[in-house]
Specification:
With about 550 residues, the protein is α/β, with parallel strands linked by helices. It contains 18 helices and 14 strands.
Length: about 550
Amino acid sequence: MHPTTFAELGLSSKVLAAIEAAGYASPTPIQAQAIPIAVTGRDVLGIAQTGTGKTASFTLPMITRLETGRARARMPRSLILAPTRELAAQVAQSFEKYGANHKLSVALLIGGVSMDDQVRKLDRGVDVLIATPGRLLDHFARGRVMLMGVEILVIDEADRMLDMGFIPDIEKICKLLPPRRQTLFFSATMPPEITRLVDQFLKDPVRIEVARPATTAKTITQTFKFCDSLDDRDKRATLRELLHTLDVKNAIIFCNRKRDVAILLKSLVKHGFSAGAIHGDLDQTTRMATLDAFREGRIQLLAASDVAARGLDIPDVSHVFNYDVPWQADDYVHRIGRTGRAGKHGNSVTIVTPDDIKAMSAIGKLIDEEPKWIGEAPDAETMAEGMKRRGRGRRGASSDRGGRDARGKGDGRRERRSRDRGPRPQREAEIGSANGAEAEVADAPQHAHGGGEERSRPRREERPREGRREERRDGPRQGGRGEREAKPQAQQQKTRPQGRPHEEASPRKDEAAPRTGEARERKPVAFGLDENVPAFLRRPVRIAGR
């Protein structure tokens, strides 16, 4: 029998007063099971679907445990790692709410904000350090933070960390921490890489699983709308029709690409909707201001990429629209989890085109439910043809995995590598046709020798000399003590092969251009030192009167 009130969880009186002031009466299943164990100092492995109250599962026991003790300069007492800036900022807000009766100092280390303010807080000493992995390692490398005093480590949204390629950073950070610490590890799914991380860094954890991994909340009504056109203008018209006909209080509309988020926002504003946008290319100040406006009801619709799909706790979201069917079925679970949170009812609507049939089928297998259609469902022939389509893949698309593709590098690095290698016409043609005229392709500069052709390299002339090694790189070896014969002019001047088809051979920098009537024969240098003389001294000498 699990506890039914917060008073039974072993929390301090100050924390209970803050919970009561926040208006919470009873804990969620993950809170009821995780908090009593976390308060005792044991490691916890929490597996729960999104929207079940995982943030309070670690913030409440942390505040209770940190009531005693004092922070030292640059040595935080606890560390919370989050995959995105928004999620890290949200955790900081939770500490402000639940720690209202405490004097705990909290520092937030995320990108897009001033590092000077962060350094000043670290210098004073902080009880709770909330950070994204990249910014934390940056501060550590500069000597601004020391991690040997961390007593509690929290890794939130671990499966998202895996998707964004942060696992190597997580491993590096964990090795910098003291071995005697408490670790609270939370994830919605448990892929093999996450299981390996748990086995490596958690000591005898208590496993708490309140729902089957990657399942949707029962409080969400899931529906699908079929759009038989592949034209994005028809797709946007379908979305506007749904917004007008359904009882939409506010909604988050998810797109697969950052580019499509901007296009959709422009269309919504043009048709009179109160809307904002959030995606990874926006600066942090704009992203936070847009989220605050949506939370406060100043805008009704939020067009978003997957940067807003996990962890964000925005209360009372009535609808989630999947303007694009997500490429990964797991992302569908996290997207629609932005509604129907904390036991409240929510609605999700997914727009499906013929290209999306295959992806929708994978979602149906994951959630183990038959799709409920708004209006006419696609016929059997359309479904069969859709299963054979390749769909709208990731090629040419600018996905929004927090600046990195899944387990890969960011778009900027790929663009730089493409510029270094030169253009690839055949590949660009494929990418350009993947999604019509709007497919994004990184432009690479055209090189003078043409794309794809290898430059022909001149081969050295080989003239072996008797009793000596073959010709050296700078030409045939000359000199040696003794007499030498002056080489004929034809032998001394090598024939330079053509480099590029449209260029003429030009003399080397260390060779003087011949002039009419000038002698071109080199005079031997005495004492056999000619091979050690610098190139600029070996130039032909003009003699007056010749």
